[in-house]
Amino acid sequence: MQYIFILFTIRIVWTNGQSGNFPDCKSGPLSSFPICNQSLPSRQRAVDLISRMTIMEKISYMITTADTIPRLGLPKYEWWSEALHGLGYSPGVVFGGDLPAATSFPMPINIGATFNMRLVHDIANIISTEARAFNNEGRAGLTFFTPNINIFRDPRWGRGQETPGEDPFLTSQYVYALIEGLQRGDDERYLKIAANCKHFDAYDLENWNGTNRHHFDAKVTDQDLVETYLP
């Protein structure tokens, strides 16, 4: 759990945080602690923050909409922003004002069909640049539920267009190029934004014949997992 939480926490400690989206590292409760020392590695700063949180506070930050933790000066944070093929409507992305829209690229099933991983990387780089712009204006988070890396095997699945397709090798290459474009910025010390792969392996059922995705038991052989879903 701690390792997972370190990865999550790293996503909110990149800057000195003088806006409502970040802890106040000038005069807030955490200002004198390692979490606010930008000269330290991100993981060390995250570990410092975790060590100061109670179990219940850690749990409260593991849900989609994390509430404030006043005693630590941690602001409310919405983990769920979307960037599947451009910034998209989601709880964490708000369009309006000077930012009424974002670039919408073709769906991943079409981008994957190009077999052009340089293009995939370049598209992701543009998406993450726009994501940063939205975040600067308080209209998006820095964590994005993107990409969907499940294999498109059954055409009845309503999310097939969200994936690169049915080929495990192409999907693995697509995901690598996309995440590099989303996360790698000018400063190697920090992620540009944080990508979060979805969904569960072998998950390709939404709601059918009385069974929904929360109760569907996908029985997949070890060979199929290794050769199809996990690469």
From TrEMBL:
Keywords noted in UniProt: Hydrolase, Signal
SUPFAM superfamilies named in the record: (Trans)glycosidases
MF GO annotations: alpha-L-arabinofuranosidase activity; xylan 1,4-beta-xylosidase activity
Pfam families (alphabetical): Glyco_hydro_3
Region forming the signal peptide: 1-19
GO biological process, any: arabinan catabolic process
InterPro entries reported in the protein's UniProt record: BXL (IPR044993), GH (IPR017853), Glyco_hydro_3_N (IPR001764), Glyco_hydro_3_N_sf (IPR036962)
Residues annotated as domain Glycoside hydrolase family 3 N-terminal: 101-215
Transmembrane segments: none
The keyword Hydrolase belongs to this UniProt entry's keyword annotation: yes
Keyword Hydrolase: yes
The organism's place on the tree of life at top rank: Eukaryota
Sequence similarity: Belongs to the glycosyl hydrolase 3 family.
PANTHER family: BETA-D-XYLOSIDASE 5-RELATED, SUGAR HYDROLASE-RELATED
The protein's name in its UniProt record: Glycoside hydrolase family 3 N-terminal domain-containing protein
Organism (species): Rotaria socialis
Phylogenetic placement of the source organism: Eukaryota, Metazoa, Spiralia, Gnathifera, Rotifera
